[in-house]
Amino acid sequence: MDQSPTKNAASLRGHWSLDPENHFLNHGSYGACPNEVLAEQRRWRDRMERQPVAFLSREIYGHLDEAREALASFISCDVGGLVFVANATSGVNAVLRSLELKPSDEILITDQGYNACNNAAQFVCDRSGANLVKAALPFPCASPDEAFNAIMEAATENTVLALLDHITSPTGMLLPIARLVDALQGRGIDVLVDGAHAPGQVPLDLGALGAAYYTGNCHKWLCTPKGSALLHVREDRRDRVRPTAISHGANTPRPNHTRLQDEFDWPGTTDPTPWLCVPFAIDFLRSLVPGGWDEIRQRNHALALQARTRLSEVLGVPAPLPPEMIANMTAFPLPPSSDETPVSAFGTDPLQVKLIENHHVEIPIFPWPAAPERVLRVSAQLYNDENDLEALVTALAKEGIGH
After folding, report:
1. Least enclosed by CB within 10 Å: which of 69, 95, 229, 297?
2. Residues 234-238: contacts with CB within 8 Å, 24+ apart?
3. 53: Cβ–Cβ under 8 A, 6 or more apart, which residues?
4. pLDDT digits (tens, 9 = 90+) for 294-316
5. Topology of domain 9-25+291-398, per CATH?
6. Considering the domain 39-282, what is its CATH architecture?
7. Alpha carbon distances (Å) from 123 to 82, 109, 162, 246, 279
8. Mean pLDDT lowest among 83-87, 210-214, 340-344, 385-389
């Protein structure tokens, strides 16, 4: 297997319709769907619209079962606990809003948790009178032990659930999730893993992981169409989880399906084609390089490490995470902003605007841990190479960042 992280990146880039004028280093935000996968979605949509009643009333469940089987094989989980959702935020909400909390209960989150999901945790705590506890994760972080200890020290005898990222969104930190799941659940604390970035970025074996709940996006690193994600619920917790939209499945059980599948498979009339594209996307991405998914992950990891080294040099700061805590993304703190800084999840840092408008470099800059402090995050996908990294370095220098 060729270990070069950018071999044939230019030819691989042709499978995506990304603007060729831009250096796209932000796969982590919304993913990017290859042309061939979009064509597969169009085939499904054409089939649906040719006979909508037949497709949505009589055929859809068989198609969902086939897609679910393929995904279950890819992430190594029992198919009875696997359902599709629109995005990881929806999966987190379904679990959290199904909890029956007492005022004495605590939910544990981290300060690097995704804002939307931490908001959902705050909502269910406010509704029930339960307490929300936030663990402070170190960043920079010298080792997985530091992150592990920060989380474990925040858990108490009242903690009933921990909502933990597999890979944190603002900093790209790969948490020691297997150790955390074992340790927390060994203390009787259920773990809900927000794996928004994990499917396709790191190998997954949800059966071995054993988390009570796991949700993750397919539209990011599996490169499926937007609106496809997974939720897996361990067998002994399936009777506790209801979808946020209660629909026909609540009183129409189907043979050979779990109650979880009955309820989640039909959320109401929607476009199911992003879910149905999952098997095709898995196989298509696998076909792009000789070593399949292992090589995809190795190439992207290697390029992320190159970005880590290069940014450390030009920014003049030590790399904030060790290699074993990085998958396909790496983040670095930037000098605090002197311009007006965003104060919400929907704000855009002025430097981010300058990078795309003046230099054609698309990359996210997050206010973290709070404005005016901020971090820049690089994503590595098959279509990226060293030219993208050098374009970023040059653009930062022209904007007075780095040397």
Report:
1. 69
2. 234/81, 234/210, 235/78, 235/80, 235/81, 237/190, 237/212, 237/213, 238/80, 238/81
3. none
4. 999 999 999 999 999 999 999 99
5. Aspartate Aminotransferase, domain 1 (3.90.1150)
6. 3-Layer(aba) Sandwich (3.40)
7. 25, 13, 15, 19, 35
8. 340-344
Residues in the chain: 403
Per-residue pLDDT tens digits for 56-105: 999 999 999 999 999 999 999 999 999 999 999 999 999 999 999 999 99
User: How far from each other are the two terminal CA atoms of the chain, in whole angstroms?
Assistant: 36
